[in-house]
């Protein structure tokens, strides 16, 4: 389950403070974006409408020229001329020139490039600013329709559109052009509209163009025709209305599209621009804000981490250290870092615990010395019984005139007591302990012929140092409590094993043994203060091993493969001792001692 510590609480507070700011900014930003988009739509609509009105005004002005010319006296005179031959007289020629002058003046009244032509069906001639000539009446009649007509032609590899409007006099002859007295045609090309589109494009962000389905497209001269073509394809699928404000996505970019339909020509004026160009200031502001929020969050996290590492962690370490000290762990130490107040407090704590540990160790050693003195006192009480038993055996063997058994018992007994009475060293070689135990077992073997034993200690392990008299109490415990109470053959095996960087001295017997509950109780008893009823022997050995070799040393118990109890005396090896790799495997030469005869005469040692 997730636990809120000081660090997570500070970070949570920073996040909680930033969340309302973030929500408020997102709401404000969305409102601003909506307002901006609405204003842009309205502004673009107004601009497009104004531009469309300008174009329509020019077209309507051009559309009014034929009506003005029809009422001109010269034009009226021109339509009343009927020639008997194909040539004009002087008055007719002057009339044509006056009409050409008026057509030129009319065309120059507009900044658009236009063309005016007057057709006289009675003369079969057409007059324009550039000249006069004959025309094909049949072809003209086929091209006359109501309203503006649009035709397309290629100019310099690009499409150009010609807008034409025919006006007939009288107006009633529109249905039948053959009855008309005068036909006036006004026309202009799409370059005029392109000029206005170029001026309207202005800042370069707009991309205006005219479009009419089934007719074509009038681009501004710097237009991206490929992109505009893609837009037209999209709009044809969506469908266009009189006025449209759309957002169209093409590729990875979204475009704001506006369209206004001309009531005069039926063409759509379409303008589009990248949405990112208009929204870039808002996007920049958003990025700056989000960077600021992330920066504030990082600063908050760093500040919380500094408070956590510089204040909370040292306090928690100190609290945990005091708890361990309360539980009796006087090896606890803090690792002060830096030179702040908590580092000073940690160093003072370490100094205090070190002094307490030294004091407890002194008291512990003194108590251990008292326990050893008491153990020796108890041993002095037990040893006489062992001594009396040995002399009873000697007396019995002397009466039976078994001199070899008497000599063997006396020899082993003297070696045994010589070792126990000359222990002034803190550590002795393992070989001395093994030899001493061998004398003890030989003595017990002479008393109990059913006892057999083996000692398997490789020569390389003989030089290992252990406290004196740590092996004999373990073997004595196996003999007295495991072998002696039963009548079957007794077996004791002693061997060494190197496991990792530790040495194991293992004593197995086939005696009565203990249950798993008994083994567990025995192991727990070694960790508690010694009790009178439990005895001092095993507890003393366990504590002495820990005193010399540390917490990793001591006694362990388990069921023996022989059926009895296995006692393991373990201690860590030093670096020099651990480099002897051949200690891992027992030596092939075994120190085996076995008594074959009850009189003790055939004692074999290998």
Radius of gyration, in Å, reads 61 Å
**Percent helix among the residues?**
40-55%
What proportion of the residues form beta strands (DSSP E)? 15-25%
The major pleated sheet works out as: 7 strands, mixed
Decide which structural class fits the backbone: alpha+beta
Count the beta strands.
20
The shape, in one word, is rod-shaped
Average pLDDT works out at 80
Q: What distance separates the N and C termini?
A: 65 Å
- In terms of per-residue confidence, which ranges show pLDDT below 50 for 5 or more consecutive residues? 377-382, 583-606
Question: Count of helices?
Answer: 14
- Order of strands, widest sheet: 17-18-16-15-13-19-20
GO molecular function: kinase activity
Protein name: Sensor histidine kinase
InterPro entries: Bact_2-comp_sensor_kinase (IPR050640), HAMP_dom (IPR003660), HATPase_C_sf (IPR036890), Sig_transdc_His_kin_internal (IPR010559)
Organism: Paenibacillus ottowii
Protein model, in words:
The chain is an alpha+beta fold and 606 residues long. Helix content is 51%, strand content 20%. A hairpin with a 7-residue loop joins strand 19 and strand 20. Helix 9 packs antiparallel against helix 10. The longest helix has 65 residues. The chain is rod-shaped, with a radius of gyration of 61 Å. The two termini are 65 Å apart. The relative contact order is 0.06.
